[in-house]
Amino acid sequence: MREEPTWRIPVGLLGLLIGLLVYGIVIARYLPGLIGDWPALAQTVIYLFLGLVWLLPLGRFLKWMETGNWR
Fold first, then answer.
1. CA geometry: angle 25, 71, 4, nearest 5 deg
2. What is the pTM of this model?
3. Each residue of 8-54: pLDDT tens digit?
């Protein structure tokens, strides 16, 4: 268990927020032009997938924030 605060937690949270903001802006800016003419059900599937795909690297990222190790 960690006894002292570490710089990784505030930096990691800030990086996570900035990363999600950039990811959301890129998706909102460019994706409607690519799939805007698709049927609503297909768009829903794509947006759901992209809304969940950012969770894939989150476990390793949170582990790094806590331990400093990516593995």
1. 85
2. 0.81
3. 999 999 999 999 999 999 999 999 999 999 999 999 999 999 999 99
